[in-house]
Design goal:
Family: Belongs to the CdhB family.
Number of strands: 7
CATH architecture: 3-Layer(aba) Sandwich
Helix content: 25-40%
Strand content: 5-15%
Protein name: Acetyl-CoA decarbonylase/synthase complex subunit epsilon
Subunit structure: Heterotetramer of two alpha and two epsilon subunits. The ACDS complex is made up of alpha, epsilon, beta, gamma and delta subunits with a probable stoichiometry of (alpha(2)epsilon(2))(4)-beta(8)-(gamma(1)delta(1))(8).
Distance between the termini: 42 Å
Order of helices and strands: EHEHEHEHEHEEH
Strand order of the largest sheet: 1-7-6-5-2-3-4
Pathway: One-carbon metabolism; methanogenesis from acetate
Length: 173
C-alpha cells in the first residue's frame, strides 16, 4: 500500500506539476529566501482580505519592505491597511513577470523572487506553471495554507492555526 503525505500533495489533486515539483519550506526558509532576493515582489490575492490573513500579510510586507501587487479586489483592503500596491490581474502580472526586460513594479529591474499569498488556487496554479516554464529568471514562493506544486517553494497543506503560526514566524524575528 502506498501512503501519500497529505501535506505535500497538491491541494487540488488534478494539479500535476510534472517532474519539477515545489520544495516544501518552513517559515525560516521562506524568510531566508526573501532576505536573499535582490528584488522580491509580493502578489496578494483576494483570499488575503480575511482579517486575520490581512493582518499577517501587512506585517510581512512591512517587515521586508516588499513591493506589492494587489490582484482581484484586494487593492482597497490593502490601501485601508496603509499598504501601497499596484493593481494588476493575476494573468497580467504573470505576463509581465515572464518578460525579462520588464523593469518591475518600482522600476528598479525585473523581480527575482515572487511571493504569493491569498490567490485563488486554480488560477495561482496556472500562473505558477507559466512562470515555472517561461520565466526561468524568477523564483516563486507561496506562503498560502495550501501546497502549490508548481511553485519553486511552498508551505505545506495546513489548517488556519498552523498557517497563522507559520506567517507570524516570518516577521517575529
Amino acid at each position: 500500500m502506498i501512503v501519500l503525505n497529505d501535506r505535500i500533495i497538491p491541494w487540488q489533486p488534478t494539479v500535476i506539476a510534472g517532474p519539477k515539483q515545489a520544495m516544501l519550506v518552513t517559515p525560516e526558509t521562506a524568510t531566508m529566501m526573501i532576505k536573499k532576493a535582490r528584488r522580491p515582489l509580493m502578489v496578494v490575492g483576494p483570499l488575503a482580505k480575511r482579517q486575520e490573513v490581512l493582518e499577517h500579510t501587512v506585517k510581512i510586507i512591512r517587515h521586508f519592505d516588499l513591493p506589492v501587487v494587489a490582484t482581484a479586489d484586494t487593492y482597497r483592503a490593502l490601501s485601508e491597511a496603509g499598504i501601497e500596491s499596484e493593481p494588476h490581474g493575476i494573468v497580467e502580472i504573470t505576463n509581465l513577470l515572464k518578460d525579462p526586460s520588464w523593469e518591475g513594479i518600482r522600476g528598479e529591474g525585473q523581480h527575482d523572487l515572487v511571493i504569493f499569498i491569498g490567490c485563488i488556487y486554480y488560477i495561482a496554479s496556472q500562473g505558477l506553471s507559466s512562470l515555472k516554464h517561461f520565466a526561468p529568471h524568477i523564483k516563486t514562493l507561496t506562503i498560502c495554507k495550501t501546497f502549490h506544486s508548481n511553485a519553486d517553494a511552498s508551505f505545506p497543506n495546513m489548517d488556519d492555526d498552523e498557517w497563522f503560526r507559520y506567517l507570524e514566524k516570518m516577521y517575529a524575528e
